[in-house]
Structures are given as C-alpha cells and as structure tokens.
Design a protein that fits this description.
The protein is mostly beta strands. It has one domain: Galactose-binding lectin (Jelly Rolls). Helix content is 11%, strand content 46%. It has 1 helix and 9 strands, in the order H-E-E-E-E-E-E-E-E-E. Strands 1, 2, 3, 4, 5, 6, 7, 8 and 9 form a 9-stranded antiparallel beta sheet that branches. It is globular and about 40 Å long. The N and C termini lie far apart (40 Å). About 3% of the residues have low confidence.
Length: 175
C-alpha cells in the first residue's frame, strides 16, 4: 500500500511539473540545417564553427554594410501566447559588435513605424543568450502596440556601414 501511495504521489508530481514547464517553439533551428530566406548585404552560411557541441551547426552571418537577414512570412508566424524571443549568438572577435539588432514587423504587410519594432543591442565577445520581451512592446512610432498575432518579417539587422560577423546557434520563442 505504501509503495502504491508513493508511486501515485510521484506520478502526480511529475504530471504537475510537466504542466508547469515553459512552452517554447523553435523559429529557426539552425542545428537542423534551417537558414533564413531573406537577406540584404549579408552572407549567410551553415557551419560547424562556434557550435554548442560537436556535430551541431551554427549560422555564420557576415554583414558587409547596412543590411538584414531573417525570415519573410515565416512558417511559424503566429507568436501569440509567447512572451519572449530568445537567441544565442557567438561573437568570435574580442571587440564588442555595436549598432546591431533584431527587427520584428507585425501583422500588417507594411514597413512603417507603426508596424515595426527594432530591438537594438550590442554583442559582447564570446557566447551570449539574448532575451527580448514581446509583451506590451510599442512599435517604432512610440504609440502603436506590436501585433505578433501573425509576424510578417523578423530579422537580424546591421544598422551601420561596419563589416561585422557573428554566429547564431538558434532562435526560439518562450512563454
């Protein structure tokens, strides 16, 4: 009887823990060979350099000047229900990469300030996991809410004429 009660309690705890686990979905699984379908002034390649572990892949991103690389009308376009966008970047240089970012264009098929949000950041030397909060974000116009119900475009952006290179290991959403 004690063995049965212990097993039942253990089962209930496992069920509750599984239900409490964070929901996530990969929007670019580089390790499975996925690469973005949209770029400008950027070279992108699949490589075994700067990976989490042997046998995996990363995406090498080389910007020549102002440009972008990402997904146009992504397959996983509905980001509803997710609170965070996350990605892992490796900067092989000792120098900090400045004036880069991540751009999200909302549900409208326009490139206007009321439908676009640029998340600007710097990439320090080495490996870093970035987190972008999606909840309550205001677009570049300063007043419109970012509509992530059906993302039109997402991309990494180089905002300057500097030449920069980095590696992306994966891009995913979490609740």
């Amino acid at each position: 009887m004690k063995k049965f009660c212990f097993s039942a309690i253990a089962g209930i705890l496992m069920f509750l823990a599984a239900g409490a686990a964070a929901k996530s979905t990969m929007i670019l699984n580089v390790n499975k060979g996925e690469l973005p379908d949209d770029s400008n002034e950027c070279n992108v390649s699949l490589t075994e350099e700067n990976v989490a572990k042997e046998g995996e892949f990363s995406m090498k991103v080389e910007f020549n000047k102002i440009g972008w690389v990402g997904m146009f009308k992504p397959k996983k376009g509905s980001w509803s229900g997710f609170k965070k966008l996350k990605f892992i970047i490796v900067n092989p240089s000792e120098a900090v990469i400045k004036d880069v970012g991540f751009c999200v264009k909302g549900a409208k098929m326009t490139n206007t300030p009321e439908n676009r949000k640029d998340f600007k950041f710097e990439i320090p030397a080495g490996k870093k996991e970035f987190t972008i909060n999606l909840v309550g974000e205001v677009c570049n116009d300063g007043k419109s809410q970012l509509d992530i119900s059906q993302v039109y475009i997402w991309n990494f952006v180089n905002f300057t004429d500097q030449k920069v290179s980095f590696y992306v290991q994966k891009v995913w959403l979490e609740d």
